[in-house]
Description:
By secondary structure, the chain is of the alpha+beta class. It has helices at about 40-55, 100-110, 190-200, 205-220, 240-260; strands at about 1-5, 25-35, 55-60, 75-90, 90-95, 115-130, 135-140, 150, 155-160, 165-170, 175-185, 225-230, 235-240. A hairpin with a 6-residue loop joins strand 8 (about 150) and strand 9. Helix 1 crosses helix 4 and helix 4 (about 205-220) packs across helix 5 (about 240-260). It is elongated. Mean pLDDT is about 85; it is low at about 5-20.
Amino acid sequence: xxxxxxxxxxxxxxxxxxxxxxxxxxxxxxxxxxxxxxxxxxxxxxxxxxxxxxxxxxxxxxxxxxxxxxxxxxxxxxxxxxxxxxxxxxxxxxxxxxxxxxxxxxxxxxxxxxxxxxxxxxxxxxxxxxxxxxxxxxxxxxxxxxxxxxxxxxxxxxxxxxxxxxxxxxxxxxxxxxxxxxxxxxxxxxxxxxxxxxxxxxxxxxxxxxxxxxxxxxxxxxxxxxxxxxxxxxxxxxxxxxxxxxxxxxxxxxxxxxxxxxx
Length: 263
């Protein structure tokens, strides 16, 4: 399901704003691929596929240009526990996981004339588990052929004319959602054609590439729901037109086809 309304003309004049004051336009595009949360193991497999392609799910507090240090895919998990072996007259008698119990057994049995003692054993177990990704931001590795310039933390893409795009990937109780937040700061109120040209066309190729990688990792070709809206942070809000939705869908298809041709 795609939720859109007709995109009305953005105002070209506002009585309470002077032309020298900057205006920020924001577009939120959310592509939902599941209405329920994906189980942790399945989502970990998806994030491993994305990491192999250069999209690393991480915390939005990542501030370095170096890749996140967290693991993706199968990783070793080591657990440790301590047990206490109680002996009576030198023979094994009781095993307990609590030191207080072992000490109590020794005290009581010794008081009753038994030769009682206990030893401590540490047990470590290692098994492979699927690493759980932390956060919802995308660290975009240099191996990705993106047209936008990565910012200092490589979580955001920067374009000419003060246009930025920030992707994110969320697996929550509301479902699995890929989101893009595109921002454009300009010195004056803009016309609809200029807004669409800069905020849709400028990052279109990168959006299509990222969306195609996510869909390939999920094993789907289209979202179950799209929620896409433009807004001015001060006074207007409207929805993406159907042609914008179609344009971005085609960009994802083109990116996928190009990737398959390279392989």
